[in-house]
Amino acid sequence: MGFTLPPRMNNSASADQVRSLMARKDAIEAEMEAQFSILQSNSVNMDTPLVDPEGFPRADIDIWAIRHARVRIIELRNDHKALMDKIMLALQEVYDPGQQPQEASATNSGTDNDSDNALQPFARVDGVAPGSPAATAGLLREDLVLSFGPLTKSSFATSSLQPLAEFVAAQENQEVVIEVLRPDDGRLRLTFIPRRGWGGRGLLGCHIVPYTA
User: Fold this and answer.
1) For a FRET experiment, which of 19, 60, 107, 148 has its CA 20 to 30 Å from that of 37?
2) Apex CA 34: angle with CA 29 and CA 38, to 5°?
3) Angstrom distance (rounded) from CA 161 to CA 68
4) Distance of alpha carbon 65 from alpha carbon 42, whole angstroms
5) Which tens digits make up the pLDDT trace of 33-70?
6) Cβ-based neighbours of 104, under 8 Å, separated by 6 or more
7) How many whole angstroms separate alpha carbon 203 and alpha carbon 179?
8) Taking the C-alpha atoms of 155, 161, 165 and 168 in order, what is their torsion angle to the nearest 10 degrees?
9) Secondary structure in 3-state letters for the chain
C-alpha cells in the first residue's frame, strides 16, 4: 500500500516514524504471505490435522515445514497487531499532535465534555453500500463525521481527507470508534472494523466527502 503524508509533515520526526512503521508492516505482511504459501502448497491451513485417521504422521505433506510455518504465522500475527497499535498512535501524532490518546480520554470522561462539545464536522457521508462494514456499524447517508478514531477537524490541514484514508488503511481488521452528527438523532458513537472481502470496494464500503458548514 502506498503511503503519503501532507507536505507540511514530510520532514517531521513523526512522519519519518510512521514511514518506518509502515515499512515494517509491509515486511511482516510479506513474510506472512510467504508462510501461508507454504501451507497452501501442502493443501493445508492453520487447523488441518497433520496425522492420518490412524494417528500416524501424514506422508503426503511436509510436516516440519507446516509446523514451522504455523508457529511463524502466529508470531507474525502478534507482531502485526502490536505494530498496528504503534502506527495508530504515530498517525495521531502526525495529524493532530495536540490530540489526547483515546485511552487517556476514556479515563477522564468527566473532563472531556467540554472538548467533545467543541467537535466540528469535517466530513459528510455521501453513500453507504449495503452489507458493508459501514452499514454494519450503522452509518447512514448524510451523517456528519465529528471524529474518526483520533482524527478531528484539526487533523486536516486542507480539504483533502487523505489522513482519514491512511488511518483506515492502518486499522484494517481492528475496531475504530467514530462520532457522527445525525440530523434526527443528534450525536452518535459508532464502531467500525475496516476489512476486505465484504463483497464490495474499499475497507469501509462508504463514500465520505469533505464537509464545510
Assistant:
1) 19
2) 140
3) 42
4) 9
5) 999 999 999 999 988 888 888 888 889 999 999 988 88
6) none
7) 18
8) 50
9) CCCCCCHHHCCCHHHHHHHHHHHHHHHHHHHHHHHHHHHHHCCCCCCCCCECCCCCECCCCCHHHHHHHHHHHHHHHHHHHHHHHHHHHHHHHHHCCCCCCHHHHHHCHHHHHHHHHCCCCCEEEEEECCCCHHHHHCCCCCCEEEEECCECHHHCCCCCCHHHHHHHHHCCCCCEEEEEEECCCEEEEEEECCCCCCCCCCCCCEEEEECCC
Per the model's pLDDT, the better-predicted residue between 3 and 23 turns out to be 23
Q: What is the rounded CA–CA span in Å between residue 116 and residue 105? A: 10
Grid cell at residue 47:
487447523
Grid coordinates 501532507 are at which residue? 6
Q: And the C-alpha cell for 204?
A: 469501509
Contact 186, 170 (CB under 8 A): no
**Whether residue 8 has pLDDT greater than 90:** no
Which of 118, 141, 119, 114 has its CA nearest to residue 130?
Answer: 141
* Partner residues linked to 210 by β-bridges: 123
Q: Check: CB of residue 142 under 8 Å from CB of residue 124.
A: yes
